[in-house]
Amino acid sequence: EGAVVVGEKLTNLSEEQVLSLIHASNAFHWITDNKLQLSAGPWTLKNHEYQLGWLEEDHPQQCFIKGAQIGASEINVLKTLHGHVHEKYPQGSLYLFPTRDDVKDFSKSRFDPLIEQNPFIGAYVTNTDAQNIKKVGRGFLYLRGARSTKTVGGTKKSSSQLKSISVDRVVFDEFDEMDEAMIELAQYRVAHSSVKELIYLGTPTIPDYGMDRMYQSSDQRVWMVECPSCGKEASLDLEFPNSIRRRLDGTAYRACVHCLAEVHPSKGRWVAQYPSRSDTFIGWWIS
Predict the structure, then answer these.
(1) Distance between CA atoms of 123 and 203, rounded to whole angstroms?
(2) N or C: less crowded end of the chain, CB within 10 Å?
């Protein structure tokens, strides 16, 4: 209170107050300054440098093409918790999975360890015994399966678990595996929100369907890797299989498509193939 903003400097605020403002606006600083612990050890950007862009992007509509072990689910869990702790989602949030069994697995393997190992998150969480609902800060985090619980008129699918809630954020995890009727019902849960965040994650299954269609309609961001030898950039994903080469001993390496020198994906940046769409829908792809 009583702060004066001069350029990028804040005066009349204590160091603790400034740090609190930074954490409220930036999920990356929130988890790094608090030394986030995961089941496998301390969280780090090492070998996952691309995740910084995910943490700092707050566009309300995004999609993520998931590759194995790239951490898209983990980052979106953290961003959801960050929003709850800093009261970005007063109506709460919904994390949607294909089935109820997926909800149980997620709650036990992902959510509960985060609470137990990180007091800066656990201090805001109550009702931890329930697998499908947690109170985080002022709002509720709902964990639901995207299977219809009843059929109306023989054809129309519905779900009482989704009808009864209103939220500010919905995360669809493994989007292609979900019932389309339940997706539409879940999307409507943010109708009365001023935030209206809809986040889609998944591995594409069929061309021009589900996640593939989502990504094609987005600004289509790819991870461009810089070659240390010639200085040119290329996407290993877009250039595959030419971006993989073999050495004389038969082992493979990631290669610059311009000069064939070895490259490392840590030295890269996100580039939108269709930047004119960035105001509408953001899409991420890294294999």
Answers:
(1) 34
(2) N
